[in-house]
Amino acid sequence: MKVSLKACDVVIFGGGGDLAMRKLLPALYHLDMDGLLAKDTRIIGASRRDMSAKDYQEKVREALNEFVPTSVGDEKTWPRFKDRLSYVSVDAQQESDFARFNEHEVGSDDRDVVFYLATSPDLFGSICSSLANHGLNQERMRVVLEKPLGRDLMSSRAINDEVTQNFGEKQIFRIDHYLGKETVQNLLAIRFGNTLFEPLWDSAHIDNVQITVSETVGVEGRWGYYDKAGALRDMVQNHLVQLLCLVAMEPPGRNDADSVRDEKIKVLKALRPIEGANAYTKTVRGQYAKGMINGKEVKGYFDEEGSNPESRTETFVALRADIDNWRWAGVPFYLRTGKRLGQRYSEIVIQYKSIPHSIFNDESNRQLQRNQLIIRLQPEEKISLTVMNKVPGAGEGMNLQPVDLNLSLSEAFNNKRSPEAYERLLLDVMRNDATLFMRYDEVEAAWKWVDGIMGAWSQTSERPKEYASGSWGPAASMALPIKDGRNWHDY
Ligand code: BG6
């Protein structure tokens, strides 16, 4: 289904920055290529730097050459896209500069306007108040807030209080790019578009759930930001917790913003706090040391540019979460994420319970494997279901082995290009659909839970455990499910 859109203005604060060049402009370009931008939609880069529209177009062209290789020589989309691009030089802390948006006719002709704040969150409040003071907070105008939305509950509240002085909740789009990933949306399709899975989606049938987001990259020149955040704030508070919510929530009555978010918030509120001594048995923190990844030697955390050897920031975290409600009582949710691990991949594994009684009693069948539903987000997008099968052959008797039923999305849909998360999310903001964005009560509940863990960690003098780059994290993280008689699913 093609989405018909009315023309709007997309203003990107931090328009010359890394996120804009690597993700936002390539996403907008792809939308234009696919015919999903209205004819008169404009894209306006905004930042402190003095630059002409022509210079900005040139900068964007270079970024597209690098990040959208198929755009090189694309004479169909580029001329159209280039004409959409303009630039306004604005110091986010200089309110008078915002008059330039009016000179630029942003929001004229009753168009919708999307202000994408790809800046430091310290600036969110002042940008929103300057926009309001220039009449740029009308109902048809929306702000998109990039993470991090604070570093704990208090700071996130402060940001929210400032922004909501000038924009209503319905105008605020808090982005978590994991929710824009195709397979994440497919998780909703699997759960609520089939009769097959939902009746088995509970503690009577599921033994445990595992969510892994494993990265091979290190902090990549972001030490300043990352060292203040760490894996728990950077990845768990948002991406992993959001995935957990989509796995664990009750079926919403409708697929609209409030219905979905009302169900997610119930999960967040049912998360058992991990506090005090619990933090030692239920969480593992790690920090990467040097090692080898894909045959190349890579640096340790303390050898990164700008590093501080006293840092106790975790680059890896594994934890056991429990959801205290009827559906999930007794089902552990194991979450882990880390930088500089052996392989880049993200997946959700639903591990079903063992069969109650085996009729296949010979030696080779003693260890019948349990069914597993694996939802792989990256590198490839696929869904697989492991089922036990008879090994073919008359002389084999009833010898059973696990076999994967695989659904590769690219094969199933004839290699149709799978859009990047930001494409879907930008399109949703333009059409004013907040279903895949976070409401403030969700952000707040996630921070409350994470604050408990941070608080417990801060009480200890123990350092995060070192792990070699290229490994799967500290040994203690392997032991986390083993203590409960379970194992991590191997990639
Ligand atoms: C970002 C984090 O939100 O997500 C980064 O700040 C992380 O540290 C990135 O590398 C991972 O995103 P993806 O889509 O590459 O898995």
UniProtKB/TrEMBL annotation:
Pathway membership: Carbohydrate degradation; pentose phosphate pathway; D-ribulose 5-phosphate from D-glucose 6-phosphate (oxidative stage): step 1/3
Signal sequence segment: none
EC number(s) given by UniProt: 1.1.1.49
GO terms (BP aspect): glucose metabolic process; pentose-phosphate shunt, oxidative branch
Coiled coil residues, start to end: none
Alphabetic keyword roster: Carbohydrate metabolism, Glucose metabolism, NADP, Oxidoreductase
Domain of life of the native organism: Bacteria
Example of a GO cellular component annotation carried by this entry: cytosol
Sequence similarity: Belongs to the glucose-6-phosphate dehydrogenase family.
Cited function: Catalyzes the oxidation of glucose 6-phosphate to 6-phosphogluconolactone.
Name of the protein: Glucose-6-phosphate 1-dehydrogenase
Species name: Marinomonas piezotolerans
